[in-house]
Every structure is written in structure tokens, then in C-alpha cells.
Amino acid sequence: MKNITKSVIALFAIFAVACTSDDVEDRPTIVAGDAPVLLAPDDSNIYNLVMENSSMQAERFVWTPATFGEDIEITYTVEIDEAGEGFANAQSVGSVNGSTQLSVSVGALNTAIMNLGAEAFVANSFDVRVKATTASSAVEPLYSQTVTITVTPFAAIDPVLFLVGAPQSHYGLGEWDNTTAIPMRYIGDGITKLFEAYVKVNTDQGFKFIGEQGTWDNGNYGTNGGAQDGNLLNDGGSSDIKVAETTGPGLYYVRVNIDAMTYQAVKMDWGIIGNATPGGWDNETEMTYDFASNMYSITAALVDGEMKFRASDASQAIFGSTESWKFNVGNSDPMVAYDVNAPNFAITAGNYTLGLSIGFDGTATVTGL
User: Fold this and answer.
1) Which long-range contacts (CB under 8 A, 24 or more apart) does 242-249 make?
2) Is there a contact between 171 and 182 (Cβ–Cβ < 8 Å)?
3) Which H helix or E strand runs over 234?
4) Residue 109: its H or E element
């Protein structure tokens, strides 16, 4: 009996040794080999990052594979740091497993740059590299060579500008109350300070622009001596802007360029246009504006077809004589006055009473369809 027991134990020992040997043989050997080589971007590439392009690709980083042995999953991370800092404060702009390329968006690159303490709108040099790692903490990462690029980031917070003055009363606010000054819509590219508003203005009403609610000390933009010539003066002694003195009460499109210290303003006349309307696609059929309700309206017989709302005169006044479609309202979600690619409204023949209202920020409300 003892001999049988000894034989069984010996047999199990043989199996254990055999299994252990097989397991070891099947395990991949992790040995640091060739480091990745960064193929793109090129050294000295320049990137001017723009806020409105945040979701677009800034760069596709491409590199050669690293080697750690056979059948090893490799994680590649693109790192960036201020030039000459040796990646002491490296920021990641993204990682991939196995792939040898990474598409980095404008927003992701901008975030990494700003996290390094970069100043917005100022060009600086940054070092980038690729780090290759495995799941084994016992194996040191492999790094590509360093490539130096120049990047100009944008501000993480949109520039702001506010309208303050008598027109605030049309929006349930106190006239000239700078604590409730109305935010204008920012339309710059992350570098330029360009703003717009769609504002009700009566004939004798004036207004100004300020850079911060609740104070006159962070930008006080008005006219120089009351001259209504499109130029701005940033001074406590600047005078009111009065866009309706000549053309009378109405809804005005106001565009402000703080970099150039200029403004533009035009009274908006909206109409309907399209093959479903009396004027076809060649001519707008004018709508009537009611100042009290801030509503454009029209009653018209429409035919089967399509239509939009358009303010071609305002478009041409601001953007040039060949531009007729910069201000139009179509069947977009949300509806806005500035979406040039908005789809048309589909119309079934009949009599319609249509209404259009444009909010301060350009949002549109359509009734009757």
C-alpha cells in the first residue's frame, strides 16, 4: 500500500513539473527592444488653435511600433511639455492600445497646453514624444525622440461683452443697470474679440458696451463725442451709441469688433422667400414688424414647395452687396437667424399667417407653420 501511495505522489509531481514547464514556455518574454520613432508631426510645426474648431483634428501623431517581445499589448501615450523642461510636467494628449497613430483634436491639444500654464493667444514652444508601455511594471517604458512644435492656444473661457443702456427696458430690465447688462453673442475664433446682438431700439434710445457686469471699469465702450460713425472709444467719458436716430425704431443687428474698436448696426427687415412664396427664390415678400411684440408677420397664400425667412438687406449692409443669405431662418433645431445652412420649410398649399420673432442672441421663434 505504501508503494502505491509513493507512486501516485511521484506521478502528480511529474504532472506538476510538466505543467509548470509548459506554462513558462507559453508565456511571452517581455524584453525592452526598439523604441518608437515619431514620424509626424514634423519638427518646428506651427499650430494656431481656434476655439470654434475644438472638435476638429489638430494633428495626427504617427510613429513606428515599439518592441517588447512577441504578443505583447503595447499602450502608446502622446506626451507634451514646455520645451526644454525634460517632460517633468508632461501632459497626456491621448493614448491608444496597439495602434501606431493618434488623432488629437484642437480642444484636447489646447487643454493640455493650458494645463501647462501657457498664456492664451501667445505662441510658445512645446516638446512632444510618444511613450510606449506594457502591463508589466517591471519593464521600463520606451520613449521616442522629442519633436518641438509651436502652439498658440485659445482662452478656455469665451471673451465676453455686454450691452447696457435704454434698450434693456425692452427685455424686462432696468435702463442703464450695469448689473443686468445683456450678454452679447461671442462670434470670434477664440482669438478675435467679435460679438453680435439682435436688439430692439427706439429712436431716441442710446446704449454702450461694457466688459463686465456690475462695473464701468472693465471696458466702457461708446462713441467719441457722440459721433455715430462706427468707431468706439473705451473711456468713461465716451458718449452713447444711437443707431436708430436716422432709421427709426426697430430690431437692429449690432456687431462689435473690440480688436478694431468698431461697431456696425443695421435695421432688420425680414421677409419670406422660396418657391412656395409669391416672390419665388428671387425676391423676398416683406413682412410687417410690430415693435411692441418684437414680431414680424405676414398673411399670404402659399403654394406647394419650400420657403425660408430672410433679411437680405441686412446681410448686404454688414457683409457686402453679394451676400444675401447671412441672415436667414430655416427649419433647423434650434432655429436661429445666422445658420446659412438651415434646411428649408416644406409647405403645403394654403393660406398662412406667419410670425417670426428674433431674440437678443439670434434665436428665432416661428409661428403659423
Assistant:
1) 242/204, 242/205, 242/206, 243/201, 243/267, 244/201, 244/202, 244/203, 244/204, 244/205, 245/203, 245/204, 248/203, 249/200, 249/201, 249/202, 249/203, 249/291
2) yes
3) strand 233-234
4) helix 106-115
Provide the 8-state DSSP code for 223: B
Contact by Cβ (8 Å): 206, 223: no
> What cell was used for 189?
475664433
Greatest Cα pair distance, the chain, in angstroms, is 119
Cα gap 232→264, rounded to integer Å: 10
Output the tens digit of pLDDT for each of the chain's 369 residues.
444 444 433 434 433 444 444 444 455 556 668 899 999 999 999 999 987 788 889 999 999 999 987 678 899 999 999 999 999 999 999 999 999 999 999 989 999 999 999 998 999 999 999 999 988 777 889 999 999 999 999 876 668 999 999 999 999 999 999 999 999 999 986 668 999 999 999 999 999 999 999 999 999 999 999 999 999 999 999 999 999 999 999 999 999 999 999 999 999 999 999 999 999 999 999 999 999 999 999 999 999 999 999 999 999 999 999 999 999 999 999 999 999 889 999 999 999 999 999 999 999 999 999
Please calculate the CA angle 196-202-205 and round it to the nearest 5 degrees. Answer: 80
Say how far apart CA 312 and CA 124 lie, in whole Å: 43
Quickly tell me which residue has 465716451 as its cell: 238
Q: Which three cell numbers stand for residue 138?
A: 517591471
Q: Is 249 helix (H, G, I), strand (E, B) or coil?
A: coil
Distance CA 36, CA 140 (A): 14
Q: Is 185 left (phi over 0), alpha (psi -120 to 50) or beta?
A: beta
Q: How many whole angstroms separate alpha carbon 17 and alpha carbon 183?
A: 77
* CA distance linking residue 198 with residue 184, whole number of Å: 9
Phi, psi of 45 (to 5 degrees): -60, 150
How far apart (Å, rounded) are the C-alpha atoms in residues 246 and 299?
Answer: 29
CA 175 – CA 177 distance, rounded (Å) = 5
pTM above 0.85, yes or no: no
